[in-house]
Amino acid sequence: MNSPVSILLKQLIHFERTGSTAVYIQVAHQIINAIQRSYLTEGTALPGTRSFSELLNIHRNTAVAIYDELASQGWVEIIPNKGTYVLVPEQKTATIKATSYRIDQVYDYSKTTGFPFQPSFHLASTNEITQKKYIINDGQPDLRLHPTHQFSRWYSASMKRKTLVSKWNQTGVSSHSAFEIQLSNYLNATRGFHIKPHNLMSTRSTEMSLYIVSQILLRPNDVVLVGNLSNYAANMAFQQVGAVIKTIPIDEHGIDVDYIKRHFTKHTIRCVYVCAHRHYPTTKTLSAERRLKLMQLAKDYQFAIIEDDYDYDFQFDGSAMLPMATSDAHGMIIYLGKLGQSLFPSFQTGFVVAPKNLISEAKNYLQILDRQGDLIQEQMLSELIYEGEMHRLIKKNILIYKERRDYLCKCLTDHFKDTVIWEKPPGGLALWLRFEPKIALVKLAEQAEANDLFLPKTILYQDKNMCCIRFGFGHLNEEEIESVVKKLKLAYDLVLE
């Protein structure tokens, strides 16, 4: 009858004779794993080479090679005329994954949990992977414009500040950070605010800002109003909390505020989400008249306004309209923004502007999600704001983006003529293109992809009344813009055939 050790080895060891790794190496690695997991303890006698070869149906010379391999690594001791015994070396080697396992399958990590949990349908990723050379996105900046060499110097200088260690080691917050002070001063100077640091919270991104605000503001079945075309990422955050999203019409002047008054009553709305400066995705600006109506309605109906100002800095023509939040005397608006969109993503930061009591609560959530933050980044951004570098960098990049917008409009005119309709926006990094006559945008994307141009589904907007694309151009230089428009026109012609 086989010994317990032989039975165990029979269960643990499995090898492939046709594999690229020699059989004796496969088996030796699995025995090492068995020793590391204490299946085989120190002092255990292994079967003799003849018995071992019969057990695994291998040649005796292979069994000898297995034991020699184990001995050379210090896992067994071979005593002549006595046997082979397991050792546990003082300096254990790194765990080695064997070619295959039976019951010893720890390194083939489980694909599913052994317990139930609630999957989140609303947070399913919208990212699409492509290897195509050209991509149209929804309006992202060009990372190639990031001043890499300057930033390496600024970042290095910030790391050497002696005050950093004390900031990391502090156990309590006795005052506002230099970054909060500089950021509030910057927003007061550039966006017309009159805030103090206690009205401000900085986050890693606008998505984090919106997530925290949603957690504070919304409960299941609360009604959130958004435009009938809205930011899909914001809708995902609202739905995850359990809010009920209801849409309101949009037109040339932004969201229809009168529609809210006609179809809703007091205390039936929890909040209205709006991109007042440039509506996402249509790029339309909410008119001054409707801004006043919306703020008055918020006061009368007692609902909050979430004002997402995702691209305020990119204003090309004239002066940017000041945020609604700068005129909020009743504490009805929560303002979300982003600083450093001309910088590499790791240097960008989101922020929330709101009354002090909401910011205090939001910071309670933030310390759970991101207690430490990035003090080096904050130190560097504080200095860039103070020294005026942030303002100069934005002004420099605005000139580049304006040229790209104008060149895109020229290329569209040259290649599409009257088949695509758009209005040149005074700012932002995207155009809203409307196809007349309507075509199947999914087929357009397929034809474009066959020609090395990728159109993600998140920029395609089509129903029975609409056939539009949000064409982001910020990440493309003029040469790339021309190539993209030509490829898009080729795909368009193929769809019409």
Question: If you had to describe this structure to a student in words, what would you say it looks like?
Answer:
- With about 500 residues, the protein is an alpha/beta fold.
- The chain folds into three domains: about 5-85, Orthogonal Bundle (Arc Repressor Mutant, subunit A); about 135-140 and about 395-495, Aspartate Aminotransferase, domain 1 (Alpha-Beta Complex); about 180-385, Aspartate Aminotransferase, domain 2 (3-Layer(aba) Sandwich), CATH 3.40.640.
- It has helices spanning about 5-10, 25-35, 50-55, 60-70, 150-160, 165-170, 180-190, 205-215, 230-240, 255-265, 290-300, 355-370, 375-385, 390-415, 440-450, 480-495; strands at about 45, 75-80, 85, 135, 200-205, 225, 245-250, 250, 255, 270-275, 305-310, 335-340, 350-355, 420, 430-435, 455, 460-465, 465-470.
- The strands form five sheets. Strands 5-13-12-11-10-6-7 form a seven-stranded mixed beta sheet, with helices on both faces. The chain has a four-stranded antiparallel beta sheet with strand order 14-15-18-17, with helices on one face.
- α3 packs across α4 and α14 (about 390-415) runs parallel beside α16.
- It is elongated, with a radius of gyration of 32 Å.
- The model has no long low-confidence stretch (mean pLDDT about 90).
